[in-house]
Every structure is written in C-alpha cells, then in structure tokens.
Design a protein that fits this description.
451 residues; alpha/beta; Rossmann fold; 8-stranded mixed β-sheet; 5-stranded mixed β-sheet; 17 helices; globular
Length: 451
C-alpha cells in the first residue's frame, strides 16, 4: 500500500508518462482532500470532449492504482470546474515542477499556507523572530532588540503573536501599563464588525524607552478574560457582507496595517509562534516580512525541523521568494567552548541551506579553465563566470552564518527582563545581544541609505 509521502512522487511519475495528452488541456489540478485522498479537477470543456475526457480518465485510473488507498475510485475521481482559480479556491498548493499546466493543491484542516510567500512590505521594516523549537530565548532577544533600537531613537512596534504562549508584553510593560485589550480581542471583535471598539485600547508604550519609543500590542489585555474561548476563534475566516471569505491571516495583516498607520513606526518586531503551524505561517510567509530571523540551537532537532520547512519551500517552487529574507541566529550560545559550539552550528546551518535553498553550482567546463605551471605553482584561470545564489561556508554575510546571542544568567528568563532593562546599560546588552542588534540595525541603516 502507498503511504501519503509517496503520493507526490507517484503522481509526477504517472503524469510524466502522459505529457503529450496533458498538453491538450489548458490545466489540470491534483486535489488532495482533508483525508489525503487525491482526485483530478479538469476544465469544464473537457467534460464535453470525448477524446480529452477519455485521456484524463485513463491517466487518473493509472494514478489511482498506483497510490491506493490515497485515491478515489476511478468513477468518482474526476471533477470539472469552470476555472483553475475556482478549483483551487480555499486550498493551498503549487504548480508541479517541470509542468506548465499542472497544480497540486491540499485541502487542510488549518489555514496555514507555507507555499505562498507575500511580497516584501514597502513600508516600515517588518522583522519576524521565528524558531522551530521553543525555549531558545527568542522573545527575550526580541525585547532586548526593541530596547536597544529605541535607545538609538527608533520608533519600534512590537507584536506578541505567540498567541498560544503569550508573555512577551510582560518583559516590556510593567503590570500598570498593560493595555485593556490585545490582539486576540481585536481578531474576535473583527468577526462581528466590532474591532474599532478595542483598537485604541490595545496598544501601550513601554517606560524603558528614552530617545525613541516602544509600542507594544500584546496577545491579550491586562485582564485576559475568556482567553481560551477567544483563542479558539481567532483563526476563524471572516465572511464579508458580499459573501467573500477573508482568511484569518488576511485579517491579521489588516490589523498590522492599521497599527502601522496609527503609530508610524520605523520598524516592526513580530514574535512568532514556534513550530510549523498556521500562526507561524502567517508571521513568516503572509505578512510581507523583510527579514525572518531563524533562531537555532546546535543539534539534530533544530536542523531536522528547518530541513522539513526548507524542503517544502523547494518542492513548492517558492524558495527563491523567501531565501534572501532569512538569517540564522545562534541562540543561547554557551559560556564554555563557544568557538567549537559556533563552528558546529555554522556547519549544520550551512548543510541545511546548501541542500535546500542554495543554488547548486556546477564546476566550470574543462575548456573554460586555463592551467599553467610557474615553478612549483600551478596557476588556474577560469574564463567563464558561473552564476548562482550560493555562499561559501565561511561567508559571514550568508544567511546560514549566524548572528550570535550569548547565554547569560541575568537574561535567562522573561520574568526579570523588564526590571533588568530598566537598570542595565547598553554595554551589557551589547555584550549579550550585540551580534543580533547590530545585524538588525545594519538592515535599517541600509534601507535609509537606499531611500
């Protein structure tokens, strides 16, 4: 019996064997339903054309035999739709590699869509703090980064989108400054056209900023209220008055635009949910992030998780759209054996990036290389420049080469961070978070110079 992981490979194999027949139709969608069963969706005209329909039915019958039990019976495995857009409505998917007219789509129980990458925002820089695993100091690093940027005179907007594990706001706001509402309140009220009621009372300013400002939009308000009940509704799509459907991530993007319009920040720092779920998907792929910081710990758990995500982007054909926005962050680098630790982490990061996101650069052809000998030295000259998006493992500017955050006992938890930042000086923050902060500031400075 075929397993789910074998569906895609089997489908490509069957379709490759029938390329000539597929070229006779405008498009074909391979639809995988909630249970993982596949069927074809073809253009409506094919239903009325005897030969094209017979060809598509034959291809599906062959596929159904190959991928059973992950297929519908042949008599119910072919549907017809007026357009490809209608066939793909409400699903996530991508065009199959090496095919110009075949798409694979998935009907999922969640709305997370890692296979579609929103264009970079042209407004204030949006930086997402993301990690495959929790407990890597991601939220602490974000808070310290916000503090340091504000000390440099920046207007910083911070969003706590780790909705299922909230807490970032407590590191930047004392209890008496917590706002009445939070992001969950806005998302729930928006479903019933009541979002304006909470909007002005969901933002607070931190008392840690001096030359700049830190604006915080927390996951929940000072009184969380029925937080669990609200959390179960924030992911809901909104049905508009005209019957159209707006996904929860689109609603979230609308909120972010409203906050940016209200605050006019220089930079937006977004604390994402850890893991490969729909909240993280919205943060990483749907909000137009200019930079996605990938927090890492050295070890197989980190690299296996990122490999799964990177491979998904590669198969979906969207790696080129996201890879230049990624930057690795070495989180919680230990106080002992730092050099060896960072060497191992850089090697692990390079391997994952090189296997999935970097272009494979073939060696130059023999006739493009001139070899001559001068004494004991052999001189080589490459006449042809080989182009591609790739980096040497030692290249410190490469996405895989990490910005470093050092572990320090005084910053080991969020509970004391608000108090620590109130009395700490910039030198100590830089000693711990300097690599990350300088990287972010470099991004902002380059944007200013570019403008």
């Amino acid at each position: 019996m075929t397993t789910f992981d074998e569906i895609l490979t089997a489908t490509v194999g069957v379709l490759n064997a029938h390329r000539d027949a597929l070229e006779q139709i405008d498009w074909l969608v391979v639809n995988r339903d909630l249970n993982g069963r596949a069927r074809f969706i073809a253009p409506e005209p094919v239903e009325r054309q005897e030969e094209p329909r017979r060809q598509v039915e034959r291809i599906y019958r062959e596929l159904a035999e190959r991928i059973a039990p992950h297929a519908y019976p042949p008599e119910s495995g072919l549907l017809f739709e007026v357009s490809r857009e209608a066939a793909c409505s409400g699903a996530t998917g991508f065009r199959l590699e090496d095919f110009t007219n075949v798409w694979l789509i998935d009907r999922l129980a969640t709305e997370g869509n890692w296979a579609e990458i929103a264009p970079e925002t042209q407004g204030p820089r949006r930086i997402v703090f993301f990690s495959i695993k929790g407990g890597v100091g991601r939220s602490t690093a974000l808070a310290a980064c916000a503090w340091r940027l504000a000390q440099a005179g920046k207007r910083v907007l911070v969003l706590d989108l780790d909705l299922e594990s909230p807490g970032l706001s407590s590191s930047l706001l004392p209890p008496e400054r917590q706002p009445k509402y939070g992001i969950t309140d806005w998302l729930v009220e928006d479903l019933v056209e009541n979002a304006d009621t909470v909007f002005e009372s969901m933002i607070a300013t931190s008392d840690l900023a001096y030359d700049g400002e830190i604006y915080v939009a927390p996951a929940h308000g000072a009184d969380p209220g029925e937080y669990v009940a609200k959390l179960g509704r924030v992911w809901m799509p909104k049905i508009q008055a005209d019957g159209t459907r707006q996904s929860w991530s689109s609603r979230l993007h609308r909120l972010l635009q409203a906050l940016e319009g209200r605050i006019r920040p220089d930079v937006v720092l977004i604390d994402s949910r850890a893991g490969i779920d729909e909240v993280a998907s919205a943060c990483v792929t749907d909000l137009g992030a200019n930079l996605v910081l990938l927090f890492t710990l050295e070890g197989c758990q980190t690299w296996n998780g990122y490999r799964i995500l990177f491979e998904h982007w590669r198969r979906a054909g969207v790696a080129r759209q996201i890879r230049e926005r990624l930057k690795s962050v070495a989180a919680l680098v230990p106080e002992v054996d730092r050099i060896d630790y960072l060497k191992g982490l850089r090697e692990g990061a390079y391997q994952v990036f090189a296997d999935s996101l970097y272009d494979e650069i073939a060696p130059p052809p023999p006739d493009s290389i001139e070899r001559k000998k001068e004494g004991e030295r052999e001189m080589w000259r490459v006449w042809e420049i080989v182009e591609g998006w790739n980096f040497d493992e030692a290249d410190e500017g490469a996405p895989h080469s990490p910005w470093v955050v050092h572990w320090h006992r005084s910053f080991a938890g969020l509970r004391s961070l608000q108090g620590r930042l109130a009395v700490i000086d910039a030198a100590e923050v830089n000693a711990i978070f300097g690599g990350l902060i300088e990287g972010v500031r470099g991004l902002l400075d380059s944007e200013i110079n570019h403008d």
